[in-house]
Amino acid sequence: MLPLPVLEQVRDELTDWQGGMSVMEVSHRSRDFIALAQQAEADLRDLLAIPASYRVLFMQGGATAQFSAVPLNLAATDACADYLVTGHWSQRTIAEATRFVRVNVAADEAASRYSTVPAQAALRLTPGAAYLHYTPNETIHGVEFPYVPESAGAPLVADMSSTILSRPLDVSRFGVIYAGAQKNIGPAGLAIVIVREDLVGRARADTPLVFDYRAAAEAGSMQNTPPTFAWYVAGLVFRWLKREGGLAAMAERNRMKAEMLYDAIDASSFYANPVARECRSWMNVPFRLARAELEPVFLKESEAAGLANLAGHRAVGGLRASLYNAMPAEGVEALVDFMREFERRHG
Q: Which residue, 188, 191, 236, 238, is CA-closest to 11?
């Protein structure tokens, strides 16, 4: 979901951005677009309080491309990297990483059906690991780390696709943060990479140019034609976030929205959330009905009521509500009201 003010500005500027052309038609090397790109980076740096010792890259391929780019940039061919497995996306990350690096699974929460995260003391870290990778929020399973793992000196790498910009963040605790744009940033296809300066320039000799962090940094993320429209929309979202009070304000809104929905689920025996309370996601709330045969009915009736995209991921089924930044509290209220009425009629 994108903020309505951003969508309205995109609509108004679609055919005429700063004088006669669409932003999709101007050269990415034009003075106007370079100014747009620089402003977007400055706003993102301001929102996240990114230290000067970090580079900010706007790259293509979404977060999935970073599953390969991270080991290619941070690990030698004979190195070992630690990975934490807490759901579908961390599993996908490992499947790609094993093509480029020896992977040590430092923790795997399969025994809980990915309804928990590992305790820090349970992590089986490798001395001298090239890095430790984790997924702070699993969008499909709805499980979220309530803490930032300690990595025993290795660079900490996080796929923050679904949590970035949802609350304040201490960037200095990480070596690399990457995020696909399509949750809290903008249109799909763009990935933001925030990488500590000392980790830039380590890429293997055979790393493709479009994956090389140093090449991207030195070219201002324009070593090839970037996804200009997605970059433009992302910049508008960053400005919207600042107008709305920044990430402290977003955190309060997101906490309130999540609590509203979890309270409704917990107050009913008709609905259930499978995730341990201490690691429930603010962004993605999966739930099931006591009578599974009613779930297709719930989806049909909720869609008719104007509530979209509530089907759970095909990997786990059930139902799921995503509460990203642009979702207003009124949307969650509408869902909760529908759930109560549906339970009254079918419970």
A: 236
Q: What is the count of structural domains for the chain?
A: 2
Find the catalytic residue in 82, 159, 257, 282.
159
Active site residue 159: yes
Catalytic site residue 300?
A: no
Q: Which domain holds residue 52?
A: 4-243
| Percent of the chain's residues with pLDDT above 70 | 100
Same domain, 199 and 252: no
231 is an active site residue? no
Q: Write down the catalytic residue from 17, 82, 89, 257.
A: 89
Which residue is catalytic, options 17, 43, 82, 183? 183
CA 219 from centre of chain: 25
133-170 pLDDT tens trace: 999 999 999 999 999 999 999 999 999 999 999 999 99
> Model pTM greater than 0.85?
yes
**Burial class of residue 29 in the structure, from the number of CB atoms within 10 Å of its CB (0-12 exposed, 13-18 middle, 19+ buried):** exposed
